Amino acid sequence: DWGPAMPHSDRIQDNSQRGGYLATRHLIELGHQQIAIITGPQDKQPALERLAGYQQALLEAKLPIDQALIGHGDFDCEGGYQAMHRLMQSPTRPTAVFACNDLMAFGALSAAREAGIAVPQQLSIVGFDDIDLAAFSAPPLTTVAQPKLEIGTLAAELLLERVNTSRSESRRVILDPEIKVRGTTATHQPTKENS
Q1: Cα–Cα 20 to 30 A to 26, which of 61, 72, 157, 167?
Q2: 152: which residues sit within 8 A by CB, 6+ positions away?
Q3: Sorting pLDDT into bands at 50, 70 and 90, what band is 2?
């Protein structure tokens, strides 16, 4: 969270709410109904927007928003790890988890592995950000990717435009994320415990 934009400055933003929606919808499309979320700090706008996207996808699919399936992390591995441990104790044990960034997803993956829960066979996990390590984790992490190259290119174009023209009004551009499906999500296989 970069705080408020300076007056007359250009701003390029990701669409965190859309990303949260895409992550959750992917899990719903795989047949999951008990989908948990590990949010980031509630004073950070991206965390709030990703939570809103999660809730939007659940409501659209006519699935309940269960407070017992909303975990809180700190956008770091330890936060994801601790939140996943708490979620595994929930009376409504999740079959899938959307972690609001990749570091928390790695923490959740570690907690699941430690508890003997196979990913993705028993638990699907989706992260957010598509950091470089995501493609190389074991299994590779399904995640929401930000268009990093497009963000960099657009930032350079907006800067050059300001230098080469007399444009003084600010521009705000919101870029759409996409889901990168890898090895941490699979079709839900109901068991006696979570069917």
Answers
A1: 72
A2: none
A3: very low
